[in-house]
Amino acid sequence: MTAVQAPFTLFPSHLELHARFPIFPWSWTFCIESRKAGESFLIIGSLIYALSNFSDYQPAASSQLSLSLYNSWILTELQMLIAISLLYIMWTHSTISTGTPTLKHQAFNPISVSMSPSVPRPADGRSLRRNPSWNSSDKSDFAFLWMSVPKNYRDASDDGILTGLLFGPLIGSALLYSSLTQLSSPSPILLPSTWRIEPPAQLSNSKGSYSVLEALVLSRYNLIDLSTLCSSILLFHACTSSWLETRYLKRRDVPEGERGSVPRSEGLRSWYYVLFTVVVSLSSFTTKIVLQKIGCGIWLHITLFEVILGALFYQFTLYICLRLAHRVFTLGELGLVCFGGTTLLMEFVNINISRIWPLTTPFIKTYRLPTPLLIFQMALVAGSLLSGFMLSPILVLSRHIAQRPVRRMRKPKDKLRQRRLLALGFYAGLFLIVVGLIGLWTRWCLGKRDPWLWVIFWLLEGKNKWSRPGLLVYWALLGSLSVAGWTRQLARSKKFRVWNTNGDNLVVPGAVLTTTPQPSTEPTVANSNGNPLPSPPILASGGSLGQILTLRLSHSANASSIAATDLLDAADKHVPTLKLNARRKFFHALAVVMFTPGIAFDPAFTHLCFSAAFALFTFAEYVRYFAIYPFGAIVHLFMNEFLDHKDSGTAILSHFYLLTGCAGSLWLETPSRLLQFTGILVLGIGDALASIVGKRIGLHRWTPTTSKTIEGSLAFTSSIVVCAWILRLFGFVDPFSTKRYLALVSISAVLEAFSDQNDNLTLPLYLWSILVLADA
To answer: Global pTM?
Structure first.
């Protein structure tokens, strides 16, 4: 019997360092997983590189701004954040013990690095989180929000704390450096000539008159202050939560997925979180006052009002996202998403301030150019989230009724009527909010121009009269054909395979399927040959009517499809069924085909359409999650076929991440045409090919704790560089340095291999940031 040879790995699973104190009988041990060490090194190194760019910046003599003092305080602010992040990593992965250090692994080098066991550990965060002995210290290296528990987060091998702490400042630094570069240029370019949009608004009053570019520079200083404020709050949550947990380590009656320091009552958790939020916000407010009194320039560009509003809203979104999107985010993803929501709120508030009280501000403090594109993005993205918040009573009641079994209702026939009434209330309320509240606000911001007419006229102002309508028709055809094709393929393939069960708990957790015959008063459905169709599976006791409705709709759909496709089925008895990875990567390829023409020929129009698509995705998720009649079950069945282990929570966000990753390069608005394609190249080309190549021919893993291979990373890098060159040959991007671009894409490929965060969200933002900082 031959022994199974372990696959080749470039790095060991863990890195361990040991040191003994010279006098005391104590020893210090530092142990960190290689993946986390590599991810931390790349993120911190990128931010340090940004600091070096700021220190070397020389403003132009024609600029009216004196930025040397501003840059020095920004450097200090970011240096302090980096130092505190490093100290946190050292603290959470260090142990001080007496005597000889205990060997945690089978093969161990007492000098510097410990090698992993010969059999690689599965890359599953669930085993790491549930087995604290795998960590190098008695403390868990996972960070948590105040009053949160492990079961609130997505299972992952890494909490992603540095993603939540440093990604916001990294993106803010890239935006600031981009505007500073243009400010020091003799011929600044706000946007490429392909952006067909009216000039950005400019505010001029008694407090000062700044150009559009100078106002943008000052606004992005404010963005960095806001990012470090949010990072400080997130780090304070993690530290205080960890400190409190150490006082309850001796408790042995803690259920799996819970923490000893967190009460079981959801009401108590909420009240404790609210109290903690108020305390943290007031502390941030007091800190700002103290810094201002002593003349310290940290948080110099953020006002007292912005400090208290940003602190309150950031913590509010952290809690709401964690509660509604249960088991969807890691801590790093949660911090990054909530930071994005906070920046959108601050832009919304600052635009309103400049419109209502223009004398109180010398410029429009927005982090992107104040064009109608920004106004429509806030109306669409923020408006869709606001609509859900305002209609939350109807949504929650709809989900509650859909989950309630018929046998527990006094009048079972009233359930369908109640769901129809709630759906009518939702659609009517949504219409009133969109047309009334959001429409009136957009009209006001556009200078009393009707937003609907503005969109119609702007639709005809493209490169030619039919270019933008043609893009809409092109996107509609591709989207319709893709959805229709997948609906047909999935409906037919269900006869030859079992359903995807990754997301079955998204409607109602805990339902059990049984094939036991049950009495039914429904008419028997027959196919075209007259033979009765088999009854759909019935939910056992404890199941919900929402799932019964889902199965009934699926059963009816199968009945109609069988009657319509008997001839096709006779010719095609073996329906080809793609695996889950292939089904998901299909949409990555679809994004390339759909969005590349729009970004190449009309990026401004594509910018607006990305915002509209985000709003449509949000409304579709409302319909699916809250089981809005009659589309909730249909949307859930379709989405359920494309879920992987990262979509095991209540909400489905993969399509949001894919859309945001592709759109982020446009939404951040930089002059470089190459940077606008970053999201498409990373997700549509690089990530898809890396996954396919890594799974098919990948033999050399980066570490034993990951399935990512070196072959996949090479495919990621080479495919992006080749596609960028193809875009250059066709004239869609300006000339660029191939060597520099290759090096930066390679760094992103390594981050993709090491990080356990959702790469659809983090990778495009990371590559875009380092490309901006490197002037690529």
So the answer is: 0.84
